[in-house]
Amino acid sequence: TQFATGKSGNPKGRPKGAKNKRPALNEERLKEIVLDEAYRNISVRDGNQNVSMPMAQAIMRSLAVNAAKGQHRAQRLFAEMLSATERQNKQLADEWLSTAMDYKIEWDKELARRATLGITDLPDPLPHPDQVKIDMNTGQVWVEGPMTKEDQAELEGWAQKRDGFKDDADFVRGELERDIEDEYRAFLEGDLARAQNMVDVIQNMLDLNGYKDAS
Predict the structure, then answer these.
(1) Residue 195 burial (CB < 10 Å; 0-12/13-18/19+)?
(2) Distance between CA atoms of 103 and 53, rounded to whole angstroms?
(3) Segment (H or E) for 64
(4) Looking at residue 30, what is its pLDDT?
(5) What is the separation of C-alpha 1 from the centre of its chain, rounded to a whole number of angstroms?
(6) What percentage of the chain exceeds 70 in pLDDT?
(7) Which residue, 134, 151, 133, 122, is CA-closest to 209?
(8) How far is residue 192's CA from residue 170's CA, in Å, rounded to a whole number?
(9) Which whole number is the average pLDDT over 178-189?
């Protein structure tokens, strides 16, 4: 026999930690494995060249090609998957539209209540309902303005910088009204142009992000 009687074939025993560990109760190991495999890049033939793409994309491409070639099973499966995907996307879009409309309606009511009662010490909501835009023809929803307190704080910081450049520009304009030497005047005019340019650039950025100065 390979091993002597009464002697272990592995006298040192099983290596420490070699025992397979059970997944924790909050782990879903199989799902992680499936996702890892689904999005692992593989090389596939595309015309005259090899291209790299995730496994899931390669499978869907193969399924679509077979469906286009007339394979009934592939056609049925592809149609079912496409229908399910479009249905889920529409459901998400409808929910987002409904949420946006409810948000605008409820906050408009609340802001009107504050105005009626003269309440001025409460902050405006983020985003402001006026900045939640809805295209009723397409159902598209987007926000023109800061979404969080962090966004608001960053934009307020830029507004302060803009105001600083405005102050610089006003100071230079005052200097230019004085009787000064031509060389100094040329220097101030260049300084004014740079300050005004920074004001315009920052203001444009604030406008694009839907920022409104506090009234």
Answers:
(1) buried
(2) 40
(3) helix 55-68
(4) 85
(5) 67
(6) 87
(7) 151
(8) 9
(9) 90
Which burial class, exposed, middle or buried, applies to 100 when counting CB atoms under 10 A from its CB (0-12, 13-18, 19+)? buried
Find the helix or strand (DSSP H, E) in which 187 lies: helix 182-208
pLDDT classification of 211: cutoffs 50, 70, 90: confident
Mean pLDDT across the stretch 160-188? 92
* Token reading at 124: 């405006």
Residue carrying structure tokens 């100071």: 171
Among residues 48, 90, 43, 85, which one has the least CA distance to residue 64? 85
User: Which amino acid is residue 44, in one-letter code?
Assistant: V
Say which residue the tokens 């409810």 belong to: 102
For residue 95, the SS3 value is helix
C-alpha pair distances (Å), 71 with each of 66, 78, 177, 181, 198? 6, 11, 83, 87, 63
Nearest to 172 by CA among 154, 186, 155: 186
pLDDT in tens, 111-168: 999 999 999 888 888 888 998 999 988 989 988 888 888 988 999 999 999 999 999 9
Give the relative orientation of helices 72-117 and 55-68 as an angle to the nearest 10 degrees.
120
Q: What is the 8-class DSSP label of residue 57? A: H
Q: Are 56 and 71 in contact (CB under 8 A)?
A: no
Question: What token pair was written down for 166?
Answer: 């405005």
What digits encode the pLDDT tens for the residues 83-103?
A: 999 999 999 899 999 999 999
Q: 144 and 163 in contact (C-beta within 8 Å)?
A: no
